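Please produce the structure of this protein holding molybdate ion.
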Amino acid sequence: MTLNELLADCRVPVLGLCAYSGTGKTTLLRKLIPELNQRGVRLAMLKHAHCNFEVDKPGKDSYELRKAGADQMLIASSKRRALMMERPVEGDPELKELLGLVDQSRVDLILVEGFKKLPLPKLELHRAEVGKPFVFTDDPLIQGIACDEATQLPDSCTLPQLDINDVAAIADFVQGFMARWQPVALTPLGPSCDDTERKQLSVQQGLDRILAMANPITEQQAVSLIDSLNRVLAEETVSPINVPQHTNSAMDGYGFAYDPTCEQYRVVAEVFAGYHYPEPLQPGEAVKIMTGAPMPAGADTVVMRELAQQEGDQVRFEGPIEPGQNVRQAGEDIALGATALPAGKRIGAAELGLLASLGLGQPKVLRRPKVAIFSTGDEVCAPDQPLKPNCIFDSNRFTLHGMLTKLGCEIIDLGIIEDNEAAMVHALEQAAAQADVVLTSGGVSVGDADFIKGALAKLGQIDFWKIAQRPGRPLAFGTLGDTLFFGLPGNPVAVMVSFMQFVQPTLRKLAGERDWQPQRLRAVAGESLRSRVGRTEFLRGVAQLGAVGQLQVVSTGHQGSGMLGSMSKANCLIIIEEPLAQVQAGESVWIQPFADLL
Ligand SMILES: Nc1nc2c(c(=O)[nH]1)N[C@H]1C(S)=C(S)[C@@H](COP(=O)(O)OP(=O)(O)OC[C@H]3O[C@@H](n4cnc5c(N)ncnc54)[C@H](O)[C@@H]3O)O[C@H]1N2
Ligand code: MOO
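Below is the modeled complex.
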């Protein structure tokens, strides 16, 4: 069984703990569980045991009734319940089946102990005195290793290393794992009768189908450094220099060759940043040196000026001196020939500075995706025109403009297209001829959508889907020649939500970004939130740090899909996944911060 098959039904992260006996796994868990609870993480433990384990005692009714032949013994009080089942199997019980028994709506995490050989992400626990081999050397799913001081890890080990006695650090690691975790993508449905008829897709199924059609742009352009902001790097940036170029001083102070027997040094020169002292320093000599100035040959250590006393040309230092202190080695930030940035990286402020620090004034970037947009509907008026009776101002084109600009797209704005088929065909032809992607809003549901549907049928291959989500249930997607087409629903909030879930990842993939997954975080619900089993609910939320340093989220209140005000108040979407009907106050939920787009 593969990892994806094993965890296909899991809606919360599952982390295994693997250790040989004697490592202190239970001792650690007895401290780790309260630590995680205190941070708001509720968890289930799943533990492998020997074949005849008992949780009950002879003489207790439940024990006797089970022994008398009850296939399942469920015992319950106002506080707790226990279900005991007699399930003899050959070998070990099936972990997938056991995971299915856990009530996942009540926990944020499942910790699994003792299924060492199964394909699960795991944290390895190791103590040198136990004298057992490492597991990670043979198990690529180990995510980190918590060990004691006496453990010697091989140099080749690149896993995060934790102190097995540092419970807080292990809890941080577990929370980091939870934050990165994504549910296993459901396999796209085959053309079952039921599906083709209803065309109801899960969010993930819709996204998988769309992404499968998006081919990254490969055309490259050289642009000036300043114009490369928010563009995507076409090729790996290999550093043409060492950064810093020379070994230099990190302090204003005195540079010299460290000698524990030397009590004072003779100052032979003063070195400013941008200059250098050409002679090798002799034993007992020092230079007065400024931050950033190159260290003279022979000098390896700097003492800051505040700890030095110079009289005439003699200098003495106060306090202990570490050999090599306050010196930045040539290439310690980025070495000559090292990869400074990977291809497919979006250039932000830090990358702009990094490219500048390498002297790369004309980075090669990928062409920006061209996106044509227009709004449809006779009721839709441009905001700079007087509002006609029974009409609304066109807001969708402007929210799309905003989000596309943030994503670094070139926008072709075709305005508002009137509701007739000829106008629609013309607009779509014009859009598809110029753009990589065409976005429209409105006209994809069952009502007055005939014009755009007819026009699309004439020009391309478009499918009208229902996505099991709210808002944004109707979605049209397909191709107009080589151009991708998205028909977003007309309701203003639905436009934004559908854009975030489907258009944003597609455009980031098209733009050549390698890392285009939207950021998702776990937050504690500050109130109970309702949804419906079978659809993903995207509520507008306000997330902020709670009193105990935890992310907390509440909804913005009324959630009508025409209420743009709710988007403006929000700083994230709260995601209530398909299997859940509600989230109680105090439970944790996924949120998708708006940071990238709004
Ligand atoms: N019988 C059904 N009716 C509806 C269904 C359904 O499944 N069966 N789905 C509902 C959902 S959910 C949505 S969302 C909407 C989507 O409808 P359309 O994509 O066809 O959009 P329109 O009907 O053209 O407009 C809906 C709404 O949005 C306003 N709108 C349209 N364009 C703009 C714009 N550019 N700027 C601002 N607002 C715009 C329009 O005036 C309507 O109020 O269908 C439901 N109905
Ligand atoms: O789900 Mo519609 O997308 O209600 O607005």
